[in-house]
From TrEMBL:
One Pfam assignment: Glycos_transf_2
Family label: Belongs to the glycosyltransferase 2 family.
Keywords: Glycosyltransferase, Transferase
PANTHER family attached to this UniProt entry: GALACTOFURANOSYLTRANSFERASE GLFT2, RHAMNOSYLTRANSFERASE WBBL
Domain Glycosyltransferase 2-like: 7-148
Signal peptide span: none
Name listed for the protein in its UniProt record: Glycosyltransferase, GT2 family
Amino acid sequence: MHKKLAVVILNWNGKSWLEKFLPGVVRFSPQSDIYVIDNLSTDDSIDFLINYFPEVKIIKNDKNYGFAGGYNQGLKHIDNEIYCLLNSDVEVTENWTKPVLELLEKRPEIAAVQPKILSYDQKNYFEFAGAAGGLIDNLGYPYCRGRIFDDTEEDRGQYNDETEIFWASGCCLFIRSKDFWEQNGFDERFFAHQEEIDLCWRLINSGKKIFYTGKSEVFHVGGGTLNKQSAKKTFLNMRNNLVMLLKNLPFPQLIAVLFSRLCLDGFAAIYFGYKYGISHFWAVGKAHFAFYTFIPGTWKRRQNHQKHQFYQSKWLIFKHFLK
């Protein structure tokens, strides 16, 4: 008999992360079914799970589908009421699921919830991928409470609240399975990065709410599969963000925002090239050309209703870098 919650970890050659963090997930999630979806790993992750964690259910994908496709493929085989999509490089804490489940229980309009995400290496600081809940500005730049671009805040209890947010991090994403599948899951074209923002935006457009609770906290290493300084990560973030804007922006704002972003991305290419190397400069250009090829398919995926007041802050990039 299935339990209400399924904690689901996507794995690709991540045996070292499973060794380090899976024992804590098993220990602190007694009321949950625990799954590992494997994206055709070439290390001995599967043998490790079979030998040391027989209670963990394994789902084997037939190839590496990336984050978006990997979860879509694997979750088809899981019919629990609530999914928790958990990165393999996350350390959970005692009773970490309880506040989230209580919030979902009392608020049926909430589709997805994110806990407080702190840095594993600096435990008194928020972590880049999610921090205290995701927001977005009027030009479509994602940011978080507790993190703007690369700058993270120290956790002083300022985000110990429960509040509505715009997007919940895929690093630790609790979502009702019904709502996940009503949106056809993640957009697999994204492969990885910002697919959770796109999903949350679609949920909001359909009338659902996304929430954060500071009553639950986890610690994230970050960059476990794709390093922050990877040019591929720059490419995926830039391409996927543009695709997401075309897909979800209300039409009155769409042309102006896209034009502004295409211009600003030129400055971003110079900045990334200077900070991380020439490969990141070219990654931005490649992301734009890839976006152009995605336009026809993305336009067909636009929903009938777009949320008109979609942002929580204005001109974030200018406030942050110029002021």
